[in-house]
């Protein structure tokens, strides 16, 4: 009898969710649009909240894996060190003998499971995000010494249009895409800039 009820419990847990229940889930991976923050009267607080929402993309493994603070890309949702071992190299595109583009092409390779997009290489060290808080990344994004000498408009343009950024939403091979869409992410960055580009406190941790 006890065995029988144990079996029932197990099989219930293993049963797939009905599709109507699954359809309700994507809220976790959707991005809230700037208008969802309109009720926050104080522009500074609204700006911080907009950045926090955009951070759900910035702190996603698809982005962090290419923005490490050391010589090695990460991989997967667990952000483990790239296997096979590869190095950043002098131009962030690998060692001369083993460049990123010896394996990574300008598109995802379906059968080999190698992700790809044009000019696949690591973000330079000064643009490292992995291990930082949203507040730290926010300040760094505004600092022309650490953001590739970009104005805030150029940061928006990069966020909304760059091809390596775009890959985060079409990562191929069962990889989890970044939340929302690149357009929605760009809209949040735009709204963050338009409200004064305020930053969360340095110490506050990222939430997904
Ligand atoms: C010898 C081939 C090879 C080289 C060279 C190589 N990679 Fe990879 N890389 C792979 C393969 C294969 C995967 C997929 C691993 C998987 O998902 O199982 C991968 C995955 C990745 C990922 C993970 C994507 C994700 O979010 O899961 C990143 C980031 C990455 N590589 C960056 C780089 C960078 C940057 C370089 C150059 C410094 C580089 N790779 C060099 C073969 C290579
Ligand atoms: C394949 C590696 C790769 C992936 C994946 C990647 N990036 Fe980057 N990122 C780069 C490189 C390289 C640069 C530097 C480009 C330059 O300055 O010309 C960069 C720079 C940036 C910048 C410019 C300013 C700065 O201070 O960092 C932003 C913004 C950015 N990435 C956002 C993202 C977001 C958001 C994602 C995920 C949706 C992402 N990136 C995924 C490689 C990557």
Write the layout of secondary structure elements.
Layout (H helix, E strand, L loop, with lengths): L1 H13 L4 H6 L18 H16 L2 H4 L9 E2 L4 E2 L12 E2 L2 E2 L34 H9 L9 H10 L1 H5 L14 H13 L14
Bound molecules: heme C (HEC) (2 copies).
Primary descriptors:
208 residues; mainly alpha; two-stranded antiparallel sheet; 4 strands; disordered N terminus; binds heme C
Structural class: mainly alpha
**What is bound: which ligands?**
heme C
How large is the count of helical segments? 8
Largest sheet: 2 strands, antiparallel
User: In sequence order, what are the helices and strands, one letter per element?
Assistant: HHHHEEEEHHHH
Radius of gyration: 20 Å
Distance between the termini: 43 Å
Question: Given the C-alpha coordinates, what overall shape results?
Answer: globular
Q: Give the total of beta strands.
A: 4
Helix content: 25-40%
- Spans of at least 5 consecutive residues whose pLDDT stays below 50 are 1-15, 17-27
What percent strand?
under 5%
> Order of strands across the widest beta sheet?
1-2
The mean pLDDT is 89
In short:
With 208 residues, this protein is mainly α.
Structure, explained:
There is one protein chain. The chain has a domain at 38-79 and 124-194. It has eight helices and four strands, in the order H-H-H-H-E-E-E-E-H-H-H-H. The chain has helices spanning 2-14, 19-24, 43-58, 61-64, 134-142, 152-161, 163-167, 182-194; strands at 74-75, 80-81, 94-95, 98-99. The strands form two sheets. It has a two-stranded antiparallel ribbon with strand order 1-2. The protein has a two-stranded antiparallel sheet with strand order 3-4. Strand 3 and strand 4 (98-99) form a beta hairpin. Residues 1-15 and 17-27 have low confidence and may be disordered. It binds heme C (2 copies).
């Amino acid at each position: 009898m006890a065995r029988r009820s144990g079996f029932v419990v197990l099989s219930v847990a293993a049963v797939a969710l009905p599709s109507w229940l699954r359809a309700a889930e994507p809220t976790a991976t959707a991005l809230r649009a700037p208008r969802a923050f309109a009720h926050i009267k104080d522009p500074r607080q609204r700006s911080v909240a907009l950045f926090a929402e955009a951070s759900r993309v910035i702190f996603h493994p698809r982005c962090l894996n290419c923005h490490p603070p050391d010589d090695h890309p990460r991989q997967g949702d667990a952000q483990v060190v790239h296997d096979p071992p590869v190095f950043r190299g002098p131009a962030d595109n690998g060692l001369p003998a083993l460049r990123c583009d010896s394996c990574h092409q300008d598109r995802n390779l379906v059968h080999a499971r190698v992700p790809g997009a044009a000019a696949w290489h690591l973000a330079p060290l000064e643009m490292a995000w992995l291990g930082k808080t949203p507040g730290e990344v926010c300040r760094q994004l505004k600092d022309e010494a650490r953001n590739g000498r970009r104005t805030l408009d150029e940061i928006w343009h990069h966020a909304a249009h760059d091809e390596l950024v775009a890959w985060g939403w079409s990562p191929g091979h069962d990889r989890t895409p970044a939340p929302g869409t690149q357009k929605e992410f760009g809209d949040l960055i735009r709204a963050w800039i338009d409200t004064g580009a305020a930053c969360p406190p340095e110490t506050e941790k990222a939430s997904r």
